[in-house]
Structure formats: structure tokens, C-alpha cells
Amino acid sequence: MKKQIVLKLWLSLLAASLLATGLLAACGGSETDSPDTDATVPAGGSTDAATTDEGPVVLRVGWAGSPDTLNPGTAVLTEAYTIFEMVYDSMYQLELDGTYSLELADSVDVSEDGLVYTFHIRDGVTFHDGEALTAEDVAFSYNLYASQEDFPFLPVYTEFFASVEADDSNNVIITLTDAIPNIQSQLIYLYVLPEHIWGALEGTAVPEFENEAMIGSGPFKMAEYAQNEFVRLEGVKDHYLQGPIIDEAVFQTFENQDALVQALRTGQVDMITEMPNTAVVSLRNEENIELVTGPPLSPSVTDIIFNQTAPENCPPGDGLCTGHPALQDRNVRLALAHATDKQQIIDVVLLGLGSPGLTLIPDSLGVFYNDSLNDYEYDVVLANQILDDAGYLDSDGDGIREMPDGSSPLNLRMNWPSDSTEAPRMAELLASMWAEVGVGTELQALDPDALTSICCPAFDFDVILWGWGSDPDPNFLLSVMLTDEIPTGNSESGYSNPTYDELYLQQAVELDQQQRIDLIWEMQRIVHEDVVYIIPFYSQSVQAYRTDRFTGWQTDSGKVALEDTSSLLVIEPVR
Amino acid sequence: MRQSRYLLKKIGWALLTVLIVILLNFFLFRILPGDPARAGIRDPRLTQDAVAAIRERFGLDKPVINCFESLNPVEFGSCGVNPLDTQLFIYVGNLLSGELGISYHTNRPVIDMLKEQLWNTVLLIGAGQILAIFLGMGLGVLAAWRARTTIDFSALLASLTFWSLPTFWLGIILLFWGSSQFGLPTGGKLTPAGNFANIWEEWADVGWHLLLPTLTYTIVFLGEYMLIMRSTLLDVLSEDYILTAKAKGLRTAQILKDHALQNAMLPMVTIIALNLGFTVAGAIQIETVFSWPGLGGAIFEAVERKDYPMLQGAFLLIAVSVIFANLVADLLYSYLDPRVQAG
Questions:
Q1: pTM for the full model?
Q2: Measured between CB atoms, does A258 come within 8 Å of chain B?
Q3: What value of ipTM does the predicted structure carry?
């Protein structure tokens, strides 16, 4: 008898919960049938919001990521920085064409020795909570970034600061330790935080501050945040520089890129910041959808790295330096460059959405990119000729060349990070291309941490397929090829050239922009001449928006970043 | 007396298992290669000083346990350090005071993150499980009752097919179909900036978002319940006492309800309890396809980031719920079938 009751109870519980679920679903279903309730129809909801005068004008952006944190000090992911750019202001704004414009300051004076910068902060700037933003807040923020050791990134931009002070007339005075040419690029990511909020935090409370209210002074303010779900921002219409036309911007996270594309197709989002290259062809033919491709806002570069560490440069202690000796010979690297068909890699790996690479400084760095260099053309005959002439012959007839002294065959270990979607196909293509010139390869993907441990400063590899992200200023990418960086682990090729090292020091203190560019171009020429890397391609940013929702997207300003404030401030609903 | 001894024994074993899981969790992730302070960040802007400061803040500069500075790569250290100042004891100590730590990835308390995600996962998987159990059992009873007829064969074929469908594939197909045919959402739990008039509208929106992932889950898991229900019921139906019941002239529905189903429920209780325990773990594939902000996706992300506190917290939560569900099944079983206890 008892048993039966339990069973019945169990079954009726099941039925009850089922009913509840069914009701819930039915509710959702029935609500959407009625045209008046736009809340439950995402697509209809946003159309109404975008076109009627009643509801707020909401821009819906779909992206595949989510900010890791709203605390600018500890954030690592790009998505977090996209939100910071909208909610916070900094001293300079980076424009899409690569130039800088003053943001929080209306004027700047530089001392003759280039060491003292005096920024006059605009009057009447307020934080989103109504408090005034003054030079005190700027100085507080810069000093916070400089002193907080456990902030992973931002302190680096303060490394040349000797002191930062605010004076009585709303000026911020930055005194530098060295006169540097790129102060603007140092200041763009140093977001100005309200002292009246952040000043109260101490010790570990600073990095652990969740910053959910996210009080800033930018053209958008934080309205609602659900981690890994969405970020909702409200436009600050009376912003001191320029307020947005739209009322709200929502960034919704799609963990699956196919769903992201589908969301754009069905009108659930108005713009997507990324998509798989495989989706491009089908979206091109879609009505009401415009596809945009071009260099990305955050420059990045993919490189084929040769371990060319000379024995005398092998880092003591950490270095294993097991690289194939042939890679220290420029002839071998040159032959491999001639044997590499970059266009085929672009066509196969990127489905055509990329441009052939040239130097480690990508084309998206604008004026710093040396486009005057002639790349090594794809020529298998020439590549074979170079290796023959240099004495690398296939003496045992197995299809793989040996060293000139007949010792070890040219079998190269090739590794790449296992989280890369592009590298596996690229590795297979390279293996077949290099086999044409008698160079064998052993392919293996490695966990990024394992790859780091064989890479540098251990130099326990032959070839690695990897990449770099870059600041808008090329200084740090250029530093990767310095002799001094071999033991630090930043140099992944082990390249060493005293002339290059000298030019690096010169450009780092050259205040004249054109002369600095000349130096940087010369450095790229040297590295290209020495075939330190093969740069297979510069990948492009691929984004898309619906043409029936908003108009005014900035698509022809050099770089593609529809999520940048350059677009978000000027777009307006289609009437 | 005997019953309470049985109860105590079961609870004792469950507690011991939890303890072992806690220790295992701690060592499991520390055997992985790589430094969590710089996991996923290959950026020269991350200076040695910053890494050292981050390690200090998360207590990673302390030895893992006496004699071991780190487990991968293995670095031996002093065995004479104060055991209370090692990562293991700090972790266990924090656990005892209800602290799960701060996530390395988001710098938020793990407990806050788990709370948000657990609720989302239970909502999704709970709804799917209930539907799958109910429909699967119903279909199983129907198939067993109409054994070796077209109904039985079709139900069997459908269940086997559903069971063998790859979850992510079915999910993405349903996503494309549902979103283009019915305007169902392609992802998320809620329409952001939905301007809901009241809580009911908001709930309706959540339900609307739940439809496709729940449907996927139900279809994939329905087969399992159907097959087990069908085969156990067939077993029971071939027993002599069923024949007796038939001979007494009872109606089929009565035989099923009062005589057969009850005995056939025993294996179902086990499998339901086990599956409910795993509910907490979520369904990584479904959560990823439908961008559902649940535990499965969070665990996936935490593995990539070597987010030890998050992983430890999530795995502990999963282990505890599986162990708890097992315990409940054990107790329920002994209640439903006294032979279990006697044995």
C-alpha cells in the first residue's frame, strides 16, 4: 500500500512539473502570436524598437565572446576592452585611420626636452553618476595603474611615467623618464576611473572589485550585465564630445558561431562582429545583409617561425636549443620562402579572406607597414636551385635532402597551438609544399602551454606556426626580434642582428614621426632580407550588418570595426 | 534498528566519497601542465612582475603540499614547511568555512558564479529530463503492452534512432529549423533589453528560449528511458503472477497499473536518480549550441583558463549532487524493495 502511494506521488510530481514546463512553453508560444507584445518576440521586438517613436532605439549586436570582467585592471579579453572603449574615456582616442585625437583633454603642451606633458582636462566633464571628472581623477587613475602590480596589462603603459600630478587649474602633468615618440599609444588604454569610487578600495579589493555599476564618462553607460549572456548599455545623449543617436546598445553572446550567423539572418541581431569564413559565401547572397571585410582594428599577425638560435645566443639555464642546424642558414630559409605558396594558403585556410603577408608589422599598422618590399615569389625551381647550390643534396635518394656534410636529413618538426583553427590546414599545406623541395616535416599540434615551454626561451623546436597581437604602435612587435629578448622568451626565432638592435634603440627615442617611420621601414627590410619568418598572410576582420535596421555604419575608414564608437555614435535607425 | 544502521552506513560511505572527491579535485587539476597565472595569455605585456604578483594574490606561490612546490613540472621543495601554509590545507580550510575561492578568470567569487549557472542548468536540464522521463516511460509502456506490433517496432526504431543522434548535430538542425520557421531564438536565456512589463512576461520569454534546447535534450534522452522501460516491463509481463491476474479476468490497464508497472519501476528509479544527479553537470553540447549560460559551458571555459577554483567548485558540486542522488536512490530502493535492505 505504502509503495503505491510513493509511486503515485512520484508520478504526479512528474506530471505536475511537466505541466508547469508545458505551461511555460505554451505561455511563450501564445504570447508571440499576438503582435502587440514585442517583449517576447526578439526579432519583432527590435524592429519595433528601431522604428517606432515609443520604445527606445536598441541596437542589438551579436558576438561570440563575453567580457571576462568589467574591471579594467584585470581584464584580458578583447570583448572587455570593446566595452571599456564605450563606457570609459581616456586621454586619446584611436581613430579607425590610425590617427589619434584628444578626448578628455582639450589641449596638450610638451616641454622642449619631450619629458613633461601638460594636458588640460576639458571643463564640465562628468561621470555617469553626475560627479565631475577632473584632473585629480586622471592622476589618480594613472597612479593606480602604475602602482597595482597584479594588473596584468595596463601597468606596462605607465613604465615611462616618472610622476603624474594634477594642478589647481585642471591640468594633468605627466613627467616621463625618457622622451618617447609614442605617448598617444601609451595613453589610449589608460581609462580614467572615478576616484570617489575606486579611491576607497585597497589591497586585493582593487583586482577583485567587480565594478558592476561601471561608472565612467564615455558615450555609453552600463545598464545591465549578465556574464556570458549580454551587456546592455545606454547612450549618454549629452556626452561632452558626442552622444550616440541610438538609445541603447546590447551585446549578446553566442557561444556557437553558426547560431550567431543565424541570429543575423533571422533578424534577432542587427550586426555581428565576427563569423566563420565558411558563412561568408551564403551571407553574401542574403537579402538585407551587408558583409564588410578589411584589416581588423586590433592588429594581429600570423607567423611561421624558424628556430635560428645560434649556439652562442642559446640562453644559459633555460635554453635547450635543439633547432635543426640547417635553419641557421639563410639559404634554407630563403628556399622555404620560395617554396611557400601564400595565395594557396589564403585560398584554402582563409577561403580567400586575407592578404599575403610580408613582414611582422602587419598592414593594419598603417604608416608603419613597409609595403615597398618585394616578397619572395613562389618558385619551386628556384627554391630547389638555391638548396642544390648551397650543398643540401639528397644523397641517399629518399626524397629528403641532407646537410652539406651528409649528416642529418632536413626533417623539420612543425608545431602549432592546438586551439588554432587555421594552423592544422596550414601545416598540411606547408608539409606538401616543402616536400616539393626535399624538406620533410613532422607535424604535431601542442597545447598552448606545452608549446610555450618548447618555444622560448627553450628553443626546443624547428618550426612553429603561431602569431602575435599588437598595439597600434609597432614598438613591441619590433622588440620581438631583439637579441636582448632571446633569454626573456619574447623572441621566438632566436634571431640576432646588431644593426637591427641599434636601429630599434634609435626608433624608440626618435621624436620626429617621419624619421621614426624611416627607421622602422629599414628594420623591416633587414628582417625580410634575413628571412627571419615567413609571414603567410594578414587575416581580415569579417563582419556583417542588416541594412534594414540601422544606417550610417563606418565601413570605408581603413579598418573594419563596426563595434567601434566611430560607428555606434553615428548610426541611426532606418526610417 | 537495522534500518537506521543501513541508513548510517550509506550516509557514511557518501561522506567518505565526498572527501575523496575533494582531494582528487585538488590534485587532478594541478597535474595539468601550465601556469594558471598566465593561462591563455601569450602576451609580452604580461611582465614577470605581474605574473609574480598574480601568483601571490591567488596563493600559487605557496607549495602545493609538503615536499612539493609544484606537481607539473614536478618541483620538490622543503618538507619542513608549515602544512597549514600549503595550497592543499588552505583549500581544505577555506572549504570548511564555506569559501570556494576567487575565480582566476573573472576575479569573482566562485560561489556567485556557480549559483547563477546552476540555476540556469537545472532549469534547462530539469525541464528536458522531466519530459524525457515522462515521454520515454509512456512510450516504453506502450511498446511493451503492444509488444511485437507495428506500434512496438516504430517506437523501438524511433527510440534507437533518437538515442544515437549526435546531440550537437540535432541541436544545430533544430536551431536552424526553429529559428527560420517559427522565429524561435537562436541563443541565450532571455531577450536582452526585452522591456518586460512584468515578471510573467519575462518568464514567458525564458520559456520561449527554453523550447529548442529542451526539445533537443528530450529527444536525445527519451530513447534511453523508453528502451529500459520497455525491456523491464516485458520481463515483468512474462511472470506467472501476471498470467494469474489475466486468468482472474482483470483488465489490461488494471494489470499494468496495479501489478506490472510497480515492479518494472525499480530499474527506472536507479537510472532516473543517476541521471538527475548528472543534471547539475549540464549538457555541454546543448549549452554550447544554444548559448545557454549554464554550468557545462562554464566548466569548459574554466578548463581552457586553468581556473582551478572554478573547476574545483564545479566538480565538487557535481560530485556532491551525483553522490546525493545515488544515496537517495539507494534509500528509495530499499523502501520500494525490502529485499535490497535484507541483502
A1: 0.87
A2: yes
A3: 0.89
